[in-house]
Specification:
With 208 residues, the protein is mainly alpha-helical. It has 10 helices and no strands. It has 2 domains: 100 residues, no CATH class; 107 residues. α1 runs parallel beside α3, α7 runs antiparallel to α8 and α7 runs parallel beside α9. The protein is globular and about 60 Å long.
C-alpha cells in the first residue's frame, strides 16, 4: 500500500473534533482495516487517535480516554492543533465516563481533568480545549468560584488561541450563562441576573 493510500485511509477513518457532532464521520471499520505495521510513525499516531475516536463513538468512553491518554503521554503529537484536539477528546471521554459513576468517583475523575488542564495551560497557554475544560471540570466538581475564575481567565487568554479564539469565547460564554451563573446564583443567594450582569461587564472590559 502506498503512503498516499494509507493517508487517505486515515483521513476517511477520522475527522477530528467534528466527529463527535457527526458520528458517521469516524468509521470504526475503516480504522480496523488499516495495518498499523505498515504505517510511518506519524501515521501510526493518527491511527491510534482514530482507534480512540472509534471507541468513543462506540460508547466505550473509559477505553477511549485510555487510548487518548497514551498519545498525550507519548510526545508523538507535533502540531499544537493536533494536541489540542486530542486533549479535547480525552477530557470529553472522561467526562462522559464519569457521569454515571458514584460521586466520589466523579470527583476523582474531574480532579484528574483539572490537573491535566492546568499542566497543559502552563506549557501551552493558547490551548483552547484546556482553557475550556479547566472551567468545565471545576463546575462539575461543584467548585463554582474556581469555575467562574477559570472562565474569566480563559476569556482573557483567548487571543492566544489564534483563529480558534472566537469559538473558544463562544464556548466559555455558553458555559458561564447556562451552567455557572444559575448554579452559583443558587449557592450565593443572588439573582442570576446580577451575576449575568457582572459577567457581561467583564466581557465588555476584555472584549479585545
Amino acid at each position: 500500500m502506498c503512503r498516499d493510500r494509507r493517508r487517505a485511509g486515515l483521513t476517511r477513518a477520522r475527522r477530528g473534533r467534528s466527529a463527535r457532532e457527526s458520528p458517521s464521520a469516524v468509521q470504526p471499520a475503516a480504522v480496523r482495516r488499516l495495518d498499523p505495521q505498515r504505517l510511518a510513525p506519524r501515521e501510526r499516531a493518527e491511527y491510534i487517535i482514530g482507534l480512540g475516536e472509534a471507541l468513543y463513538l462506540d460508547g466505550a468512553y473509559g477505553a477511549a480516554a485510555n487510548v487518548f491518554d497514551s498519545i498525550l503521554n507519548s510526545g508523538d503529537l507535533q502540531a499544537a492543533g493536533g494536541r489540542e484536539r486530542v486533549v479535547d477528546w480525552w477530557a470529553d471521554a472522561l467526562d462522559r465516563d464519569a457521569r454515571p459513576r458514584p460521586d466520589i468517583d466523579r470527583q476523582n475523575v474531574y480532579h484528574r481533568i483539572r490537573t491535566r488542564m492546568e499542566e497543559e495551560i502552563a506549557v501551552r497557554p493558547g490551548n483552547g480545549a484546556a482553557l475550556y475544560w479547566l472551567a468545565s471540570a471545576a463546575r462539575a466538581q461543584g467548585d463554582l468560584q474556581a469555575a467562574w475564575d477559570a472562565v474569566q481567565a480563559g476569556w482573557v487568554r483567548a487571543p492566544l488561541a489564534g483563529d480558534r479564539a472566537t469559538a473558544l469565547r463562544e464556548d466559555l460564554d455558553r458555559l458561564m450563562l447556562r451552567g455557572i451563573v444559575p448554579e452559583r446564583a443558587r449557592v450565593v443567594g443572588q439573582p442570576p441576573q446580577t451575576l449575568q450582569a457582572d459577567w457581561e461587564r467583564f466581557k465588555e472590559r476584555w472584549r479585545r
